[in-house]
Amino acid sequence: MVLTIEPLDARKHIRSGFSCGKDSLDNYISKQASQDLKRRVTTVFVLIDDPDFNILAYYTLSSFTVDITALDKAFAKKLPRYPLLTATLLGRLAVDNKHKGKGFGELMLMDALKKSLNVSKQVTSLAMITEALDTQALNFYKKYGFKQFKQNHMKLYFPIKSIEELCRTLDI
Ligand SMILES: CC(C)(COP(=O)(O)OP(=O)(O)OC[C@H]1O[C@@H](n2cnc3c(N)ncnc32)[C@H](O)[C@@H]1OP(=O)(O)O)[C@@H](O)C(=O)NCCC(=O)NCCS
């Protein structure tokens, strides 16, 4: 068995049994994700233990624009005064209940950060943006260096430069 992160393939991956404790995230992977993928609304990456095709965890990535006035001053002051700048949205991240606490959340987050860094070298991105559904998720993201938006503390961002430093430190 080999842990593998790969793009969602609706014909191959088993989505129906996925349960992370948040209905919106469970419904999304079983009912909406493959449609979003087909319509190019977002990319969806899943963790499987190959050759078992049950989904252990998943995340989604898409492009986003961010209002720089919502960012903290120390970060925003280094940026040009364009009202909106491009970013990468980590729209969803979830680990199946049976597999929480095994490091899969961290594995998926690091993979998403590394992908966003790689993509930013082709099409620029200022930061990764995400939104926490509750304080537990908020604490999870803050642990890795995400910063909270000024006006909405459940929204978080991680500057690409900081992602680059993290990836260099972790040698990934
Ligand atoms: C949040 C979530 C992704 C974490 O996944 P996980 O696989 O259980 O987490 P990991 O095993 O990779 O844990 C990695 C580290 O984060 C820590 N961590 C996990 N959940 C945490 C939390 N709620 N608050 C603070 N730290 C947390 C772990 O202790 C671990 O740190 P350690 O190595 O120092 O012990 C998972 O619990 C989940 O899917 N939750 C429901 C959906 C959700 O809230 N998604 C977030 C986006 S809205």
Tell me what you see in this structure.
The chain has 172 residues and is α+β, with helices and mostly antiparallel strands. It has one domain: Gcn5-related N-acetyltransferase (GNAT) (Aminopeptidase). Helices cover 33% and strands 31% of the residues. The chain is globular, with a radius of gyration of 16 Å. The two termini are 22 Å apart. The mean pLDDT is 94.
Provide a compact summary of the structure.
This protein is of the alpha+beta class.
CATH superfamily: Gcn5-related N-acetyltransferase (GNAT)
Q: Cα distance, first to last residue?
A: 22 Å
CATH architecture title:
3-Layer(aba) Sandwich
CATH topology (level 3) name: Aminopeptidase
Oligomer: single chain
* Overall CATH class: Alpha Beta
Biggest sheet: strand arrangement: 1-2-3-4-5-7-6
Shape: globular
Listed once per kind, the bound small molecules are: coenzyme A
Question: Quick one: how many beta strands?
Answer: 7
Stretches with pLDDT under 50, minimum 5 residues: none
User: What share of the residues does DSSP label as strand, in percent?
Assistant: 25-35%
Number of helices: 5
Compute the gyration radius: what is it? 16 Å
Name its key features.
172 residues; Aminopeptidase; seven-stranded mixed sheet; 5 helices; globular; binds coenzyme A
How do the strands and helices of this protein lay out in sequence?
Elements: E1 2-7, H1 23-38, E2 43-50, E3 52-67, H2 73-76, E4 84-95, H3 104-120, E5 127-131, H4 135-143, E6 147-148, E7 155-159, H5 160-170
Parallel strand pairs: 4-5
Antiparallel strand pairs: 1-2, 2-3, 3-4, 5-7, 6-7
Helix pairs in contact: 3-5
Bound molecules: coenzyme A.
The site of coenzyme A has 21 residues, from β4, α3 and α4.
